[in-house]
Amino acid sequence: MQLLVCVTLVSAFAVYVSGAALDGPKVGLAWANGNNIPLTNFLTPHVGAIHTWSPHCPDGSNSIQCYQMLWGADSGRITDFNNTVKPAGGNKNVILGFNEPNEAGQSNLSPQVACIFWHSIIEPRAKEGYTLVSPATSNAPGGIQWMQQFFQCCSDCTVNAMAVHWFGTSVSSFESWVSQWHVVFNNRDVLVTEYGFQDFNGQQHSADEVVAFYKSVGTWMDQQPWIKKYFPFGFIPSPQSGNPAALMTADGQPTALGLMILNEAY
Ligand SMILES: *[C@@H]1O[C@H](CO)[C@@H](O)[C@H](O)[C@H]1NC(C)=O
């Protein structure tokens, strides 16, 4: 009887264990700078992973996990992905699915078409040792529904963990949106592969308000064992004047806010 209970518990959880590949320091670099900006100033002991919205890993990223992404399903990206992604090993053990397929201006895929390409291009990588992470929808209202429909046609797919994006200004909205991904999708681990303070109504916010936001959500994410990584958006060169949410200076250094996150100094 005791044994039976154990076996049942193990099999109930086994399907969604994302594995050691997602463990380690939680801060991630969402890195659109290729090799143009040296990674050195961004690699603190708190940084565990990088993704580049592509299967490519920049120079100097060997000391952290590099998550390789199939951004979209156009033939150029599929060929690049096939040619670049080798069997898992070293610092390459995680694959990220499509980027914002629910957005016309992003990878723009219906759940059904995304399933077809998951089956043919991404799923074979599970057998090569990869941990597979879901597509990442935007936090537009239909994001959850897109993902539920994806799982209806991809019920046999290996999806070890969920990815999610979020932009806004409310800490409580952030926490409830991210929590939904864990609860609705069978307690899978979650990677927040893009998040940022952004006011879609164009209102100005003080630097104190922006810092308070990142402190609150960072503290909260560090406390949730099912949140494995979070990638603030973005470490891209930006003038700081008038932009209290800038994480990188115009000449490629972390801002004070960027450093706070890179050091988990909440
Ligand atoms: C990519 O690789 C998959 C198998 O992993 C294969 O089915 C597919 O045809 C390949 N596509 C291209 C464009 O190379």
From TrEMBL:
SUPFAM superfamilies recorded: (Trans)glycosidases (SSF51445)
Keyword Signal recorded: yes
Signal peptide: 1-19
Pfam families in UniProt: Glyco_hydro_cc
Recorded superkingdom: Eukaryota
Keyword line: Signal
Record keyword Signal present: yes
Domain Asl1-like glycosyl hydrolase catalytic: 28-258
Name under which the protein is recorded: Asl1-like glycosyl hydrolase catalytic domain-containing protein
